[in-house]
Amino acid sequence: MPETPDRPLRTLLRRLSMDLGPLRDSRDFRLLFGSGAVTMFGSFLTLVAVPLQMKALTGSYLAVGLVSVAEFVPMVVCGLWGGAIADALNRRKIILYTEAGLCVTVLALMVNAMLPAPHPWVLYVVGALSAGLGSLQRPSLESLTPRVVRHDQLTAAAALSSFRWNLGAIVAPGLSGLLVTWSGFAVAYGINVATYLGSLVLLWPVRTPPRSEDAPQASIRALVEGVRYAVGRPDLMGTYLVDVAAMIFAFSTALYPFLADELGVPELQGLFFSASAVGSLIASVTSGWTGHVHRHGLGVVAAAIVWGAAVALAAVMPTVWGIFACLALAGAADMISGVFRSTIWNQTIPDEFRGRLAGIELLSYTSGPMLGNARASLMGQLGGTRFSLGAGGLLCVGAVVAMAGLLPGFRRYDARTDEHALRERARREALSGT
C-alpha cells in the first residue's frame, strides 16, 4: 500500500502520545492511580491551608516557616524506616494503615479549626505526624508499582504517575486557595478527610503477591544492607547523585519572589512557580517516545544537563515570559530525568530490596530541593538573584558532566544488556508463567 502524505505525521504523533497501557492492562495500577489522584487533591488542600491558618493565628513569618522544620526530622527517619518495613511486611497493609492514619491527622486539624480559639501547636504536632506517616507509606507505594505493572510498561507507568502529579500541581493549589478563602479552614480539612476515605475505598481491593518467607526483618541491619546494595551498584548511585547535584545547584524557587520584584511584576511571581509544572505536564503528555529508549543512564545525564542549562539561560532572560519558557523547559527535563531514574529502579532492583531503596530514593529527591533553596539564598545574598540563578545552573551542568565521567557504569547503562535488568525481567516472566 502506498504511503499517504500524513502517515509519517500519524506515526510521529503515535510515538509521542502518552502510553496508557498500564491503565488499560492493570486493574491494580488503575486503583493505585485513582487513589493517588484523589489523595493528591485533598493533600494540596491541607498543604495550602496549614500555613495560611498558622499565619492567621500568629501573624509570624517564623511560626509559618517552623511548620516545615517540624516536618523534616520525621520525614527523614520515617522515610528510611518505611523502606525497611516495606521489605519486611505486607506492603498493602502498610499503605492502608498509614492512609487511615493520615485521615485521622487531618480529622484532628478539622476539629482544631472548629474550636473558638484554634491552637497553633496542633499544626506543628499534626504536621510532624503527617510527614512521618507519609514517609512511612511512600516506600511501600513506590515498591508496589513493579508488582502490579508489566516489566515492559514500567517506563509508561512512571510517565503516567508524573502526569497525575504535574496536573495536580498546576490545578490543585489554585483551587485549594480559593476553597480555603471561600469556605474556611474547617471545611477544607473536612474535604481532605473525605478524599482520604475515598482513597481507602480504592486501595482496599488492590491485590499484592504474598511476601517471601525469607523476607528480612525490619532492623538497622536491614537498612545497612540496603545502603550497601545501593553503593555496590554504580548505575543506582548515578541516579541518586545526579539528581541530588541537579537539585542542589539548580533548584532555586527561593529566588522567584526576588526575580519578580526585579522585573517590576511581583504580582506575576506565581508564573515562575507554575512554570516547572507546566513544562513537566507537557513532557508527560508527549512521553510516548520514552518507552523506546534503552540507554536510561545516558538519558538521565542528558536531561539533567538540559535542566541546568535551562536554569542558567533563565538568568539572562530580560522578560517574564522568557524566564517562564526557560523554567518550563527545565521542568520538562526534570520530568524526563525522573521517568528514566524510576525505570532503572523498577526494572533492576530485586523485590527484596525495593522498599529499602525506595526509602533512599525518597531522601534523595526530598533533601535536594531543600538544600538547593539554601544554596540559592546564600548565593543570592552574596551576588544577587541573577548571579545565583545563572551560576547555579552552570555548576549543575559541570557537576553532572563530572559524575557521568566518574560513573561509566551509570552512563553506559542499557536495559537490553544490563545484568540486573535481564535478571529481573527473567524473574518476573517466570512468576507470571506460574
Q: How would you explain this protein's 3D organization?
A:
This protein is mostly helical. The chain is built from 18 helices and no strands. The protein has helices spanning about 5-15, 20-25, 25-60, 60-90, 90-115, 120-150, 155-185, 185-205, 220-230, 235-250, 255-260, 270-285, 295-315, 320-350, 350-385, 385-405, 410, 420-430. Helix 7 packs across helix 14 (about 320-350). The radius of gyration is 22 Å and the shape is globular. The two termini are about 40 Å apart. The mean pLDDT is about 85.
Helix and strand pattern: HHHHHHHHHHHHHHHHHH
Averaged pLDDT, please? Answer: 84
Output the radius of gyration.
22 Å
Oligomeric state of the chains in view: single chain
Secondary structure tally: strands = 0
Distance between the termini: 42 Å
Uncertain spans, ≥5 residues at pLDDT below 50? Answer: none
Beta fraction of the residues?
A: under 5%
Continuous helix count: 18
Helix and strand arrangement:
Blueprint lengths: L6 H10 L4 H5 L1 H32 L2 H28 L2 H24 L5 H29 L5 H30 L1 H19 L16 H12 L2 H17 L5 H7 L6 H17 L10 H19 L5 H29 L2 H33 L1 H22 L1 H4 L7 H14 L2
Helix pairs in contact: 3-4, 3-6, 3-7, 3-8, 4-6, 4-9, 4-15, 5-6, 5-8, 6-15, 7-8, 7-12, 7-14, 9-15, 10-13, 10-14, 10-15, 10-16, 11-12, 12-14, 13-14, 13-16, 15-16
